[in-house]
Structures are given as C-alpha cells and as structure tokens.
Amino acid sequence: xxxxxxxxxxxxxxxxxxxxxxxxxxxxxxxxxxxxxxxxxxxxxxxxxxxxxxxxxxxxxxxxxxxxxxxxxxxxxxxxxxxxxxxxxxxxxxxxxxxxxxxxxxxxxxxxxxx
Length: 115
Prior knowledge:
By secondary structure, this protein is mainly α. Helix content is about 65%, strand content about 5%.
C-alpha cells in the first residue's frame, strides 16, 4: 500500500515537473500516452469481446468454477450493442488517470504562466 502511494506521488510529481517546462507539449506526454493505451485496451476488448459472449449473447465471467452471467434483461439486445455497452464503461474508467494528469497539467500551466 505504501509503495503504491509513493509510486503515485512520484508520477504526479513527474507530471507537475513536465507541465512546468517551457514547451507545452512536454506536459502532455503522459496524458497522451495513457489515452493511447486506453484506446488500445478498448480496441483489444472489442476484438476479443466477441469471444467472451456465449451463444445466448450474455457476458460470462469464470471465477473459481462459478459462472457469473449477465442479467436476463439484456438477453434481447444484439451482440454488437452488448459489446459496446461493456466497452464504454471500460474506456471511461481507464481514462480517469488521463483526466487527472490533464487537470494537473492545466492547473500547473495556469499557475506558471507568465503574467
């Protein structure tokens, strides 16, 4: 837990440091990298997500020999729509660090801007 907090603090400090640089693009490196990573994760999910849907169209998760299925109410939704329903929340959650780094960048640039 402590190692995670120290690592998180170091990454935030790095973002502050990069955001203070004269070139505005240096401070955007981390948010852009995280955003591109999230896009790759979602594309990977969309490519592999079809395999996770069973023949009835419900998403299954296998944990310790217990099958957890999606609610029956979404069984009537087309398969492509279901994949997108799972992809959008994943994309949003993965981009939380992108938003945090963008906020750090914008605040730092506003504070350090020459008057």
